[in-house]
Amino acid sequence: MARAIFSIWRGDQSGGAMQDYVTEVSEGMVVLDAVHQIQAESAHDLAVRWNCKAGKCGSCSAEVNGKPRLMCMTRLSDLPLDEPVTIEPMQAFPSIRDLVTDVSWNFEVKTKIKKFTPRPPDAADGTWRIAQEDVERVQEFRKCIECFLCQDVCHVLRDHHLHDAFIGPRFLVYTAALEMHPLDVEDRLADLKEAHGVGYCNITKCCTKSCPEHITITDNAIIPLKERVVDRFYDPVRRLLRVFQG
Amino acid sequence: MSDYQTHQYDVLVIGAGGAGLRAAIEASGAGVSVGVICKSLLGKAHTVMAEGGIAAAMANVDDRDGWQVHFADTMRGGQYVNNARMAEIHAKEAPERVRELEAWGALFDRTKDGRILQRNFGGHRYPRLAHVGDRTGLELIRTLQDHGIHQGIQFHMECTVTRLLQDGDRVVGAFGYDREKGRFRVFTAKAVILATGGIGRAYAVTSNSWEYTGDGHALAYHAGADLIDMEFVQFHPTGMVWPPSVRGILVTEGVRGEGGVLRNSAGQRFMFDHIPDNYKPQTADNEDEGWRYCQGDKAARRPPELLTRDHVARCIVREIREGRGSPHGGVFLDISWIKAHVPDGEAHIRKKLPSMYHQFKELAGIDITKEPMEVGPTTHYAMGGVRVDAETQMSSVPGLFAAGECAAGLHGANRLGGNSLSDLLVFGKRAGEHAALYAKRTTQGEVDGGVLDRTAAEALAPIERQGAANAESNPFAIQHELQEAMQRLVGIVRLESEMREAVTVIAGLAERARRVSAPGNREYNPGWHTALDLDNLLTVSEAVTLAAIERKESRGAQFREDYQEKSSVEGQVTIVIRKAGDGTMRVTRETLPPLSPEHQAIIDANTA
Ligand code: SF4
Ligand code: SF4
Ligand code: FES
Prior knowledge:
The complex is a heterodimer. In chain A, 36% of the residues lie in helices and 16% in strands. By secondary structure, chain A is α+β, with helices and mostly antiparallel strands. Chain A has a 5-stranded mixed beta sheet with strand order 2-1-5-3-4. In chain A, helix 3 (132-142) runs antiparallel to helix 6 and helix 6 (168-179) crosses helix 9. Chain A is elongated and about 75 Å long. The mean pLDDT of chain A is 94. Chain B is of the alpha/beta class. Chain B folds into 3 domains: 5-53 and 81-105 and 138-234 and 380-440, FAD/NAD(P)-binding domain; 236-377, Succinate dehydrogenase/fumarate reductase flavoprotein, catalytic domain (Flavocytochrome C3, Chain A, domain 1); 459-570, Methane Monooxygenase Hydroxylase, Chain G, domain 1. Chain B contains 16 helices and 21 strands. Chain B has helices at 18-29, 67-77, 84-103, 136-148, 215-222, 254-257, 287-294, 309-321, 345-352, 354-364, 419-441, 449-464, 475-489, 496-513, 526-550, 597-606, and strands at residues 5-14, 34-37, 54-55, 118-119, 129-130, 154-156, 159-167, 170-178, 184-194, 227-228, 233-240, 261-263, 331-334, 373-382, 385-387, 400-402, 407-408, 493-494, 559-560, 573-579, 585-591. In chain B, strands 1, 2, 6, 7, 8, 9 and 16 form a 7-stranded mixed beta sheet that branches. In chain B, strands 17-15-10-20-21 form a 5-stranded mixed beta sheet, with helices on one face. One iron/sulfur cluster binds next to helix 8 and helix 9 of chain A. Residues 58, 144-150, 169-170, 173, 210-213, 215, 217 of chain A line the site of one iron/sulfur cluster (SF4).
């Protein structure tokens, strides 16, 4: 069996450092397996979040060799093992301990987005009729597993720390899912423009590249939202129309 | 008491999967204050893993369906040791619970006329599962989460309960710690709902995540509640078997619903070899008919791959034991063959089973549109759990309710696929409703400060013992040995002598667990958390083993090599686990109430 070196960030809010661990590597192993193995063998208190180990819950986000990854979906066979594999926590959120970060901000942001509000039911029995293609239009956004990797890489949050002014790509995807939901009648455009800061996004597409669910965050969610905001608030013809319509 | 962070609610919900969230939404809607404690972050619970769908007799696809048929299917699947009243309530209320999810924003796949589409699943007579591709669980939990956060519910994320607090018999709160800092927390409440899910982590090969350590089962047991049906542990027939690091991860039954077939190393569809008599009239006897069924031909009967999970799992074990398994100790599950029979085959498979495609591609390097998967049984679900009242979900202890997987009764000896998500919704709602009613009738109880101090001291002991860290006292090693023993000795095929051995092993591990040590401090320390979960895992393992020894027959998920047949005597018995006055675990047998004539008539009319 081969052995490999894993260089893992250990520490908390007050600081920390990379620490090397050596462990056996076997066929099919993912980064999370290596972390667990190290935890069971030599670092019982090595803090890490995980649940499903199948890329479905979005708990195990970290930066592996500097790249935003789900540890449970990153196979060691895809990494060069002749040099240490570095594993660090997400950088856009405060540290709790080791690989675990404080992502509670994300949960607070979500509560500020106006909730789903359906149109009145279509049928007398209180149900709706929806075409499959209308369902499919938003399914891409609803695949989101809330791993927050896109939030981690977005420079508006990561480098400029504008957490108070910008909700980040995850919640633009969430807003898009609501806005394009075939039943929803709520209006979130004013919030998007002001409190949620859609304008801060300058379409670098880093979020799209990092999404483990392959959601085309920028092109399919953010740009259409930006267009709706522009149509509403900046389009002169529309604005004129609104004046006439009172 | 001043040393602890305290929180007071009318209703406290422990667990934030489907059942816990649904309960919390209902209770807060009834106007009481609600707190929810979850071991992980919100929205990460095991419910996200559910793939197939929610069983509800809405009859959108086949109008012959109705609650009676769903009830009869559930009873037959459970081999008639289910709580019939729960099965009736479940079948009647599931459609309304699904429609309500849609009103809260869930988007299900549609029929041609725009209604909720339903798919075939093992043991369900008609297409019955509302679904969204193969990520229905994610849709369900996200819908409840996104609805719930606007209901004034207080969430305590990454917080674990180690003990229920009692005033006399009555449960009046819970004691736990938060992972982040390891601070102790005291929750007082007029009613407590357990919604902690399953016990899969007691086994080495499981589809369950680290959270599923039987917490609710053990908390209820120590508070004096009855546990029933603990011998019935479902081994899902299709888990991944290769590579080793993904062993146990679920492969949805939806693969078989879409036409996936099981083959042994000789290429035979071995499921045709042994079809149980009571399912013969509804099961295809040739490959062509089975395929027509998967394509929605109402005149066709279902392929034998869609027989109940207990049966399919045993057939797979038989093939493996008799030397006809796949290279890595499983059998083959092939969906790629349907390519030739549907237009645009590969795209069709990817569209119907997107997360399965993704999962095999990324974790095993296998393209399921081109090659068969290797699969084998994995520990999946506990039918057994806290005994509850069918109407209210209250346990045998006042003030303590349970819903979802940690409660027992609905599924009997074997759960049908799809009946779990509907269970969560139907009984989660009922638990929330009745816990709120109960809370309105009662006052907050008294919590004994001495108990809190003792509980805190016990919880801290592993950290204080850290000087002596070695393999004997390593929490991960103890957990691992327990999992290996349960897998080997109390698995799919059971034998009294092996289970007796398991009892001895569990006792030895329990002794070691009393000396477990967890190096490090209290802040987000997984070694400490694992040490604190051990007691729950050991408690449920003992309960499963003792109940399995007591049931001297093979029924549903329980297969005894020494009692291979069903017994009419045992079929009228419920095995009850209870904590005796001296602290030992007691097993008793109770006679099941006979089926009412009405229930019997529905079953007779629908299982022909
Ligand atoms: S495209 Fe926008 S949201 Fe995405 S990373 Fe770039 S700036 Fe952030
Ligand atoms: S959009 Fe993608 S990257 Fe962002 S949280 Fe969701 S799944 Fe993760
Ligand atoms: S553990 Fe669930 S996504 Fe990695």
